[in-house]
Amino acid sequence: MDFVQSPDWPAAPPGALAANSAATRYGGSAPPPPSIGRAPAPPPPAHPAPVPPPYRPPAAASSGSGTRHRAKPPIPVKILVAGGFGVGKTTTVGSISEIAPLTTEAEMTTAGIGVDDPGQRSGKTTTTVAMDFGCVTIDRSLKLYLFGTPGQTRFGFMWDDLARGALGALVVVDSARLDDCYPAIDFFERSGLPFVVGVNAFDGRLAHDLGAIRWALAIGEHIPLVQFDARDRLSVRDALLVVLDRALDRATREKRA
Questions:
Q1: Does residue 1 lie within any of the structural domains?
Q2: CATH of the domain at 109
Q3: At what angle do helices 89-96 and 233-256 cross, to 10 degrees?
Q4: Of 32, 104, 142, 242, whose CB count within 10 A is highest?
């Protein structure tokens, strides 16, 4: 087969490839021969790029000060539920508590006849021998811890311990047995603890109207007197809010003084 050879390219001797290389054609140094195996790592640059910081997950919403915002736990407020024997203290705590209430109920025996009198209208067969405990959250900033006192006179020594640290009290009254609540009212008047008198409406009615009850109890107009139903959660809530309002009012006045 005939072919034409370019006069600009010198003829390479047989078996010699270097004469037909790019360096021979265009001048310049010949590139290094290809290496066999893994290529060596390139030299580091004169000005290395800054190393990026390690990855961190996005932080939660923070406050203006730059610190992570944490929800504060609710403020605990201790409230006593006191009163005479069989007036509905255990029922009051159990109706409003958001947890299973702690009760210390014991069966009434014949030994208590003439000593523990729950009243003719009551079908009560147990009695509190230590205390009742429950709690209810008012809002994100406030939580009430309820301590129910025993109603019998022989357990009166526990009232001082239960009242320690309390901010207020709800004195539960049976309108048909007003004489049973006198010791409780006397106790809180002597201790100076803010209290509210809550008249429990047995069977949905009162034996006397609130005005007559206030006169019989000889309490001043500055002491709230409310009617509530110990079996009704919302009714108990309203009574406890009055206690809380009275406690906060006293705390505000003491702070200003």
A1: no
A2: 3.40.50.300
A3: 90
A4: 242
